[in-house]
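The records we work with from here on pair a chain with its fold. A complete example follows; check for yourself that the lines match position by position.
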Amino acid sequence: MKKVKGDQVSNIQLTALDGSRFDLDNIRGKRCLIAFFRFAGCPFCNLRVHDLVEQYHAFGSNFTIVAIFDSTLKDLQRHALKHNASFPILADETKSYYQEYGIERSLLGTLKGAILRFPTVLYAMFVKGYIPTSFGGNIMTMPADFLVNEEGVIEVAHYGKDEGDHIPIEIVRQFSHSKIENA
């Protein structure tokens, strides 16, 4: 079932890129972006992680990112170690959190992104070097982004319509610096 604004996030416990165990409860009290990506070799996903790494300093110290991939840890390590991210990159090998968050798969979305975002995928592959040498997850998984406040409540739920559809970085930056509105 899809998550919506106002939903409380449950704890996420997954294996991180370095082999350690990540526990979402350890970052409670911080705002965060929980980003669900496609397979580890996805050029769109690696370009997005690259952009998040580049902008991470602009989000401030009370904000973090949790990047989750539809991949095995081995495949994720093959593709994501080069990012040197300051935030956790996690492997959901059983896809349990993909199911819990209602992450969709779409052949139409995959084809739409491949056609409409063709210049982006070319840039990702041939300028940035994010060439998909393996497909360790489902190629039809769509991305999803959740902006979560300090209390663990979703303030924005964005389900991608194609493989390159994410919340704009500027909105993530604005959210990272805003205050919780008291009701």
Remarks:
- The chain has one domain: 13-177.
- DSSP finds six helices and seven strands in the chain.
- The radius of gyration is 15 Å.
